[in-house]
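Schema walk-through. Below, the input block comes first and the output block second. Nothing else is stored per chain. Lengths vary across the set, and this one has 82 residues.
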Amino acid sequence: GIAVGNVIGSNIFNTFGVMGISRLFGVIIVPTNISDFGAYFALAITLILVIMTRSKRITRFEGGMLLILYLYYIVELADFIN
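--- output ---
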């Protein structure tokens, strides 16, 4: 429960807290290709993690899948930057 709450709370704070504070100091321009992929990917991963932790244990397979999804996200992010 603590891990799931931490992940969900972190996502909510990063979305509203960090972006809100940053907006106080200037205009935030988010390219559409980043916002389209990143927002949906973060939502999907959060939902997957909530489903995985319902059993109170993340298996080796699930951990491997999370690692693969993380690597996929890094590759996609690098493509957005270039």
